[in-house]
Design a protein that fits this description.
There is one protein chain. The protein is mainly beta and 224 residues long. It contains four helices and 13 strands. A hairpin with a 2-residue loop joins strand 3 and strand 4.
C-alpha cells in the first residue's frame, strides 16, 4: 500500500516544473510524512488552463455523505479504471499530477515492517499520476479530491512490495493533463516514463511509521 509520500520542494521549483503559478505560499510547506485525508497541492487543467490548488488526498465518491468517505480511496490500481464507470469518467476527463519527491513502502515480515523510501536517483522533484473528482457538500461547497494511480512494481521495488505509484515524466505532463482520451499505448508510455535505473530505494528510519513524526530525518538512508 502506498499510503505515505513526501513533498519537500519549494514553491519556485513546483511552479517551474509544472508551469503554474499561485500566490499561495502555504501550499508548499515541506512535509515528510503525508497521509491520506491530507490537503495536498495538485496540478490539474480546468477551463483550458493549467492550475495548482490543494485537493483532499482520497477520492470522494459521488454518492458520499461526508468528505471522510474518500479517505480509503487514496490509491487506485490503474488496471481497475475500466471496471468502474465513475473511475473511467475520472481517467477520461479529470487527470491530475501530484507533485512529490518520493514515496514510502513497507516490507512486511512475521516480526516487523521495515520502511523504505523510493525516489528519483537524481533526487529531483517529480509527479505521481492521479485522477480527481469534484464533490458537492451538503452546504453547497465544491470539494476537490484525488487518488494516486498505481501499477505493478518494477524489479527494483518488487523486493519491498508488488505495487508502486506511477511517476510521470515531464515530457508526458501535457498529454496527461489534456482532454484527449488516452489509448492503451499512451498509458503504457506514462507507466514506463522512467527507467528502473533512474530510481533508488533506500531503507529509512522506523520513525516514519508514526504519522505524527515529520522532518527530513525520515528520508535519510540507513546504511546497510
Amino acid at each position: 500500500m502506498s499510503d505515505r509520500f513526501v513533498l519537500e520542494a519549494s514553491k519556485k521549483e513546483v511552479e517551474q516544473l509544472f508551469d503554474v503559478s499561485t500566490a499561495r505560499d502555504d501550499f508548499f510547506k515541506p512535509d515528510y510524512n503525508i497521509t491520506p485525508g491530507s490537503l495536498i497541492p495538485v496540478v490539474y487543467k480546468e477551463d483550458g488552463k493549467r492550475k495548482i490548488y490543494t485537493f483532499r488526498w482520497g477520492l470522494i465518491p459521488p454518492d458520499a455523505e461526508e468528505e471522510i468517505e474518500g479517505n480509503d480511496n487514496f490509491v487506485v490500481p490503474i488496471e481497475d479504471l475500466e471496471e468502474d464507470e465513475w473511475l473511467t469518467e475520472c481517467i477520461e476527463q479529470r487527470r491530475c499530477l501530484i507533485p512529490a519527491n518520493g514515496f514510502y513502502k513497507w516490507k512486511f515480515s512475521e516480526k516487523k515492517s521495515t520502511p523504505f523510501y523510493i525516489r528519483l536517483l537524481s533526487n529531483q522533484l517529480t509527479a505521481i499520476a492521479g485522477i480527481y473528482s469534484v464533490w458537492e457538500s451538503s452546504a453547497g461547497r465544491d470539494v476537490y479530491s484525488c487518488a494516486m494511480l498505481t501499477t505493478e512494481a518494477n524489479t527494483l521495488v518488487q523486493p519491498v512490495d508488488n505495487r508502486m505509484p506511477i511517476f510521470v515524466h515531464p515530457d508526458d505532463y501535457g498529454q496527461w493533463l489534456g482532454n484527449e482520451q488516452l489509448s492503451e499505448s499512451d498509458l503504457e508510455k506514462v507507466i514506463n516514463g522512467y527507467a528502473m535505473t533512474e530510481l533508488t530505494v533506500n531503507r529509512v528510519s522506523e520513525d516514519v511509521n508514526d504519522p505524527e513524526n515529520n522532518g527530513p530525518g525520515l528520508i535519510q538512508p540507513i546504511p546497510k
